[in-house]
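Feature request disguised as a bug: please show the residue count (374) next to DNA polymerase III subunit delta in the output. Example input:
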Amino acid sequence: MLFKDIVGNKEIKEQLVRSVNDNRISHAQLFLGPEGSGALSLAIAYAQYIACENKQENDSCGQCSSCRKYQKFIHPDLHFSYPFIASKTNKVETSVDVIDEWRTALAADKYLSLNAWLKYLDVENKQPNIPIAECHAIIQKLSLKPFESEFKVLIMWLPEFLGNEGNSLLKIIEEPAHKTLFLLVAENRDKMLNTILSRTQLIKINKLSNKEIQQHFVEAHQCDSAQANRIAYLSNGNMASAYAVFNEEENKETGSFADWMRLCYMGNGTGIVKWVEDFAKIGRERQKNFIRYGLNIIRDCLLFGDNVKEMIHLEGEELEFVSKFSALIGVKKGEMIIKCFEEAIYHVERNANPKILFLDVSLQINRYLRTQPS
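Example output, currently without the count:
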């Protein structure tokens, strides 16, 4: 993983490179950033730069033996820990038992999300975690000396999934073996064990800007400006979501968000039922992206109604719809619709029946839109 291949966070990259060149490498660091910010990739690129045998001014060389192994995630001094589903039946007790799936997932997606990772595992409806057996395996692995590089590195992704078992790692985090680095990559510090949090140096990874995402898709995927702008708008700073939108095939049968809102406003029962039946046929990820898009549209309607138009980055038909729809909703109705959409996403993620769910959402939207303000 090279720094140059990761979008955004230029200042963080410079800070990481400088810490290596100045020989000021903290033994326990927390890369804290929201989903899709590239925090995991930055941690891997940082570890690769430390191990690189021919460091460049601002990045790894990408050619030496160490870099080639890092790019395949097979370096003997690079260890990973991550949430997984322990299963005696499938003989899965530690993260090493699903390392092939992990390497495949990382190679396919530099902005890996938890939901995307779980698709590589046979999870059914089970919740992943980092169990005590994994903690013991970490302690055992890190008790060994580095094999090839100067440093031995453990990258733990989503330490929020460590329960109280994580306290067994406190001693090795606070007083690690010589030339041992802990790089924790988290999305929510409030869900981490305070005992671990207090023993790390914080590196805050920023959410990507719409401009950075838009520029990336124009340059890397030859998207036109309008398409790249739409991807950035829908992703809300989350590169994982941006790629989900980019890879999504258009479904002409479903129609647009504006069409759905018109049906809801008119109370066209036949039209709503037909729309729901078509919408229920598409996948859950596409349903969630569509509702997230709706959340952004409602937000822009509220901004338009408050005359804060400089914060709206829409054009054409979308901007025309926002200008008209904003007249129908005020702050109170907007808040109710937003809550309704957020609950819909929650239920989609939990495999709710889409026909029942979105028919109910449509009827709620109709009620909100037709209710006269008090």
